[in-house]
Structure to design on (262 residues):
């Protein structure tokens, strides 16, 4: 399923419980953030430590367990954890030795969000068939 | 579990398969995007249609089925679908009549992302114990 309108685009990524890395920026023509769905198989690490020039990263762990290295700290992360890493944070993520790690990662330029939800949303007059 | 460092914050949201709405902006002190985990119970709709002043919204459906109203179009959305809605899009989401709908929603100011991944990332010299 793919749908495209003047103000939207919808795609199907597939089985969210088992798909590999899906990078949404290009497919959805994103302009405010990059969003990816990621899986590290058991025992696998991102093979390098990195920082960012401008982007804050926000992670939500969807399933599994793993480890986060951040600025010299190392600790376990698991399903249901969420975390923010500032651009300068030196980071690396590894899946657990016996557990894969599935997570969503958002990249957005730090300090660009001016408002959200009530302070950015506006009511609209149109109605769906069910309201 | 909650961990706070100079360049990061980690929290546990709980059971990602069953938790209600979790809004991460304030908890994680986000500055580039708002990220929320949401569940609409079966038959329940967001009770209004809305647009945004500045924010692009990016959704990833984690489980279940539902319906999206967008600019007069209506169609089914389901687990594994991802979509972008531009600020001016008039939108409303409803869970299916017999299925809840669990999704992640990202709000980020449209046209603020300058680069991502390879064009924003930088290698760092530090190493975790496992590399």
């Amino acid at each position: 399923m793919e749908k495209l309108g003047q103000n939207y685009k919808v795609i199907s990524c597939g089985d969210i419980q088992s798909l590999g890395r899906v990078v949404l920026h290009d497919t959805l023509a994103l302009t405010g953030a990059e969003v990816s769905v990621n899986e590290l198989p058991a025992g696998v690490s991102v093979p390098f430590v990195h920082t960012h020039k401008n982007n804050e990263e926000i992670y939500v762990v969807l399933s599994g367990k793993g480890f986060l290295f951040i600025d010299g700290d190392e600790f376990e992360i698991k399903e249901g954890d969420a975390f923010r890493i500032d651009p300068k944070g030196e980071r690396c993520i590894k899946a657990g030795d016996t557990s894969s790690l599935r997570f969503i990662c958002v990249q957005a330029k730090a300090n660009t969000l001016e408002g959200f939800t009530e302070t950015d949303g506006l009511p609209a007059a149109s109605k769906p068939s069910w309201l």
